Amino acid sequence: MKKISFKTASNEEILVSNILMGSGDFLRIENMDAAEKVLDRYIELGGNTFDTARHYRHSEKALGAWMEKKGNRNSVNIQTKCGHPVREASDVPRVTPEAIYEDLQTSLEFLKTDHVEFLGLHRDNELIPVGPIMEAMHKEVISGRVKAVGVSNWELPRIIEAQNYCLENGITPLSFNSPNLSLATINKPRWENCVTANNEMKEWHEKMQLPLIAWSSQAEGFFANRFSQDDLSNEEIVDVYYNESNWEKLKRVNQLAEEKKCQPIQISLAYVLSQPFPICAVIGSETIEQLESSVAASKIVLTAKEMDWLNLK
Known about the structure:
11 helices, 3-stranded parallel beta sheet, alpha/beta, single chain
C-alpha cells in the first residue's frame, strides 16, 4: 500500500497507509474470531492505520484487545474521534473542551494505550468559536496523549478559520480533514450533520496539500452493482444515492472496469485514491476477499481524463 505523509506540530512525519481499516459493528469482541483474520491480513498487506471513534459501539475495545494480543501497538497508527453527540441525545452537540478530554480518556482506556497518533473532532458546532476547541485539541498534543489533530464533518470555512487560528496563535494546526468523499453524488447526508467534500473543498486540498481521510469512500457498495433502479427496498440507500447522475456513473464504472479487467467497485475506490492531493480512504471490509479487493484497487491509477469522464465532466 502507498504511504501518505502526515506531519505533526513538531514536524514529525507519520507515514499512513492510503487505506485505513475502518471499524464498524463487525469489529467487536464477540466477533474477534472472524475480525482478527481480517485485521491480520490488513497488516500483512502493508496496512498500518486504524480508524475508530468513541461513538462507535464496540470497536475500540476490540482493537485494544487485538493489539494487546499481537503486541503490535508501536507498529500501527490509530485515528480516533471525539465530540459526537451521545446516542440517547443525538440532537445535543458535544463539541466542547470537556467532551474532548472525556472522550479521549475513555478511548485510551478501551484501546489499552497511553496515546493515539490522530485525534479528530467527529462533528462541529458552529455556535462555538474555533478558539476554545482548537486550544483543547492543542492541550492534548502537549500532554502527549495525541500526536496530530484534525476534523471530520466540518465545512470548509470553519476548517480555514480553525487553521488560521492555530497558525496565528502558535498552537497545533490541523494535520488532516476527514469528510465523506466518493465517486457518488449524494442527495443528502447519510447521517445528520455530516459533510461531503464538494469541489471547493477538493480544490482547497489540492492547493494546500493537506491530507484528506475519506469516509464512505466506496459509497456503501453502490458501484458494486448491489442495487438497481427498480429495487427500492433499502430506503436509506435510495434516499442518499438514487439519482440519475449515479446511474450514469455506474454505467461508466462498469465500462471502465471491463476495459481494465477489474471489478467495478475497484474503479470507484481508485477514483477516490487518484485525487490530486494526499488522500487516504477508510474501508469497512468484513472479509479477506473484500480487503484484498480494496488493496488491489489502491494500485489502479486513473488518468485525469478518466477521472473527469467518471465524474460526468
